[in-house]
């Protein structure tokens, strides 16, 4: 049975050496954790060529959108906050809706999708906003997610607490011309989520269930909502680690799963092409971070794409090596939360790939 035909939590497994990794791959991961070089890890899964090569779970305290869950014994069925990896999933959902002709294309005017705000649409400084600017986080509007997500002045948290989340985003002061500056913005994803819901006529979680999760055999998920009852496209999705890995595999397979085209390769190609620099050495596509990392087995750097989430949540993909990696962590709201998942990806997974 092919990995992309399997059901929830089920992956065909293979030994590390069979898939070109150092046989000591898992032992090296455990050594890194025990030495304190890799911290706050809840789950690590690595697949190559559609087979699971590494699967590790731990017991640790966790939370769900800031609500303590106590100590959790993580396993293949445990749902976990994706936080902003949710954005990458929403990018796939927009692509599926676009493939079906249910939503306007990226070049369509953004404010035309929100006719309730004629005052904002009449503002010349906002007239050039497009759906594409939301997908690439280049709206040019004032937005501050550099603050801790425990701070109510964090723009995403303020949006979740607002009476009208969409007006809150769209009425922010204009700082730059659309398309010229990248600023991390959960509000941009909220707008795309609204475009999906209005175009499909369904709540985003219901569209996701039919259009993306069912074709991948994903039957268990949660999608957390704000005070207004709207499921958060920016950070609200909870999945198990094996199921997030299936989504990564879908991307590596060019949008195909179970013998069907779930999302078009054309949309994936557009989504994973660099659209703008983030200013810190990475590029950004349509809700995907893009970069490169050294892979000794390939003799140099190779490109990767990833969904990043608060606390150390990661979905790393490297097409040339055909590797997908899921990391769940619990280092929420910490400024160094990126360190451990990056070390794990570069120093454990890629450094121990010994055969191209």
UniProtKB/TrEMBL annotation:
Domain (Beta-lactamase-related): residue spans on this chain: 43-329
Superkingdom: Bacteria
Gene3D superfamilies for the chain: DD-peptidase/beta-lactamase superfamily
Transmembrane domains' residue ranges: none
SUPFAM superfamilies: beta-lactamase/transpeptidase-like (SSF56601)
Protein name (record): Beta-lactamase-related domain-containing protein
Species per Swiss-Prot/TrEMBL record: Shinella yambaruensis
């Amino acid at each position: 049975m092919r990995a992309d035909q399997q059901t929830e939590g089920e992956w065909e497994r293979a030994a590390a050496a069979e898939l070109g990794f150092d046989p000591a791959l898992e032992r090296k991961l455990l050594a890194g954790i025990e030495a304190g070089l890799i911290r706050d890890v809840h789950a690590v899964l690595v697949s190559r060529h559609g087979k699971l090569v590494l699967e590790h779970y731990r017991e640790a305290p966790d939370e769900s959108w800031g609500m303590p869950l106590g100590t959790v014994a993580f396993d293949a069925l445990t749902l976990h906050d994706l936080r902003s990896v949710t954005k990458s999933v929403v990018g796939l959902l927009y692509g599926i809706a676009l493939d079906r002709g249910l939503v306007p294309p990226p070049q369509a005017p953004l404010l035309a999708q929100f006719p309730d705000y004629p005052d904002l649409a009449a503002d010349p400084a906002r007239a050039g906003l497009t759906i594409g600017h939301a997908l690439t986080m280049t709206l040019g509007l004032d937005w501050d997610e550099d603050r801790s997500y425990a701070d109510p002045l964090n723009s995403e948290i303020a949006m979740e607490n607002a009476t009208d989340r969409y007006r809150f985003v769209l009425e922010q002061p204009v700082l730059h011309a659309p398309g010229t500056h990248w600023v991390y913005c959960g509000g941009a994803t909220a707008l795309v989520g609204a475009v999906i819901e209005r175009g499909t006529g369904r709540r985003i979680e219901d569209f996701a269930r039919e259009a993306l999760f069912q074709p991948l055999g994903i039957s268990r998920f949660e999608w957390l909502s704000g005070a207004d009852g709207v499921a958060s496209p920016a950070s609200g999705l909870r999945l198990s680690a094996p199921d997030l890995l299936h989504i990564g595999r879908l991307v590596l397979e060019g949008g195909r799963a179970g013998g069907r085209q779930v999302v078009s390769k054309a949309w994936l190609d557009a989504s994973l092409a660099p659209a703008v620099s983030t200013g810190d050495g990475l590029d950004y596509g349509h809700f995907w971070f893009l970069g490169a990392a050294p892979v000794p087995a390939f003799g140099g750097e190779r490109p990767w794409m990833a969904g990043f989430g608060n606390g150390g949540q990661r979905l790393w993909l490297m097409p040339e090596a055909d590797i997908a990696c899921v990391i769940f962590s619990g280092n929420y709201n910490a400024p160094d939360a990126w360190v451990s998942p990056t070390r794990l990806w570069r120093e454990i997974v890629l450094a121990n790939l010994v055969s191209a």
